[in-house]
Design a protein that fits this description.
With 215 residues, the protein is mainly α. The chain has 9 helices and 3 strands, in the order αααααααβββαα.
Length: 215
Amino acid sequence: MTLQKLETELKIRGFSDKTVSSYLFHNQKFLDFIQKPKEEIDEDDIKSYLAHLISDKKLKPASVNLAMCTLKFLYEKLLEKDIFKKIDSVKSEKKIPTVLSKDEMRQLLSSTKNRKHKLLLEMMYSSGLRVGEAVNLKLEDLSPNEKIGRVLSGKGKKDRVIILSNNLITHLEQYNKWRAKKNINSEYLFPSNKNPETHISVRQAQNIIKKIAKT
């Protein structure tokens, strides 16, 4: 009944079929691992499972955090079990070297008033995206309500999931409102000014970052 309740609630809230499947998958794996009734599940069970994912399954931080989000949705929001207060997210690994401190990044973001350029920079820094991954993002790849996004890896590799921070989600919503006012209709998050049917190029994005860094 627990997973049926989860599936029903996710569908009512308009989650995509792929997300529903992901939430059900992770919660079933958790139940298989813990082997306890839902009424008896506590904080230690959650920590034990997350440790299992990190140490035994060798999952990356983003995957572990995604699993935790699915468990938190069920046990905290639906079943109202207060067992996540002392459980922190796993620190994300950095795909590329980051030499900027948080203060330096704030200064960099404040140095440009261009909404598209600012969001591009923040998306890369916050979610650890490469330039090519960022410019290829489509609106449908992001699920702010679920605080996750999907990055298409290509070349036969599996797509990966990124976690969207609360600040990034706020700025994303503001950016989309701005797009609507400007009547920018494009499936891409960062469309080309000349041709909205495609996205800005990697070279354009690199030049944007260089220009912001020089200001």
